[in-house]
Amino acid sequence: MKGTLAVLAGAVWLAFAGCQGPAVRLPVHVRGAWARATPEGARAGAIYMTLTSEVADSLIGVEVSREIADRAEMHETLGDASGRMSMHPVAGVELPAGEPVEFRPGGRHVMLMGLALPLAEGDTISVDLRLRHGGRLALRVPVRSGPGR
Amino acid sequence: MTRDRRSSLAVLGWAAAVLAVTGCSTAGDRLKGQAPQGEAFVGDVSLPEVRPGREDRPFTFRAEPGGLLFVYFGFTSCPDVCPTTLSDLRRALGELGADSARVEVAFVTVDPYRDTTEVLVPYLASYFTGAHALYPRTQEQLARAETAFGASSTASKRPDGTVEVSHTAVGYLVDETGRVLVQWPFGLSPEDMAHDLRRLLAARSGMEI
């Protein structure tokens, strides 16, 4: 079934060629990644997912090709008691060992800035997650109109 | 448990059942959103509605008779909060079927730097048919509207050209007299939105008869 539950992009092999000898398994799992379909004229988009690292690590960046957007940043939306919300870039997101870290609407998200084209439902886009210790993880993200849809 | 206690429990149970049944048609089944703060009258406030290739026209915050007006303060470069609320509302309206025609949508941009008519109108059209794109021409106009709703926002341009925006991410339902009936906090589910819309529309139909 296409576009179902989870995009499993974990278990990426990374070769520390010349440093450590054998290849090291990268123990980061991504579940339920999706990007929200964007309306006409919108210049920004968001990606949501749940990241779990088997060892303590941190997400230090997200890269995206220019065919999709000018750049990707990690952002966090914060709200106050009055319902006022604002969004702030974050330099990194801690991934405690074994603990799922959620990126969800109204909270942490990957922001795609300067979209080249609207994100259309049914598309799949590619981004690279950069981890402090674990190297780089290629992620395929389906575009949907909403969570689970 | 004594016999007396058991029978009084039975009476209580019966009373609760009666209340539950009659409650459906009266005051039960509460709204999922929150009661607005204070007076919550917005029917004397208007903002310019922008339309491509045409002159602005003033839009006043009142629903059509027997209908509801949804009002939101946001901006199109908002990647997270605004699209979440707007797409959830779209889904809620989809659940209403034909009654969705009785709900109008008005979107007030709080980002005059980037939300030109050419950006704002197609953006809204991709969510809703016939939505009202409201573009305050002055900071005072925006502030007056926000104050009436109990909302606030700031949009400031940084030296590097990026725009930092913070805004009240609340949806408001307004009736034909310009009164705010309920406000929806961020994150209210489409099902809960549909629940409130159905309930308020049913109350409005009753008024017409």
Chain-wise SSE layout:
The complex is a heterodimer of chains A (149) and B (209).
Chain A lengths: L11 E3 L9 E3 L1 E9 L7 E10 L3 E8 L4 E11 L4 E6 L3 E3 L5 E3 L4 E8 L8 E8 L3 E10 L5
Parallel strand pairs in A: 3-12
Antiparallel strand pairs in A: 1-2, 3-4, 4-9, 4-10, 5-8, 5-11, 6-7, 6-10, 11-12
Chain B lengths: L2 H21 L22 E4 L7 E4 L7 E7 L6 H16 L6 E7 L7 H9 L6 E3 L4 H11 L3 E5 L5 E6 L2 E4 L5 E5 L5 H19 L1
Parallel strand pairs in B: 3-4, 4-5
Antiparallel strand pairs in B: 1-2, 3-8, 6-7, 8-9
Compact description:
The complex is a heterodimer of chains A (149) and B (209). Chain A has 149 residues and is mostly beta strands. Chain A has strands spanning 12-14, 24-26, 28-36, 44-53, 57-64, 69-79, 84-89, 93-95, 101-103, 108-115, 124-131, 135-144.
Structural features, described:
- The complex is a heterodimer of chains A (149) and B (209).
- With 149 residues, chain A is an all-beta fold.
- Chain A is 0% helix and 55% strand.
- In chain A, a hairpin with a 7-residue loop joins strand 3 (28-36) and strand 4.
- By secondary structure, chain B is an alpha/beta fold.
- Chain B has helices at 3-23, 81-96, 117-125, 139-149, 190-208, and strands spanning 46-49, 57-60, 68-74, 103-109, 132-134, 153-157, 163-168, 171-174, 180-184.
- The chains are: A mainly beta (149), B alpha/beta (209).
- At the A-B interface, strand 4, strand 6, strand 7 and strand 10 of A face helix 2, helix 3 and strand 7 of B.
- Strand 7 of chain A pairs antiparallel with strand 7 of chain B, so a sheet runs across the interface.
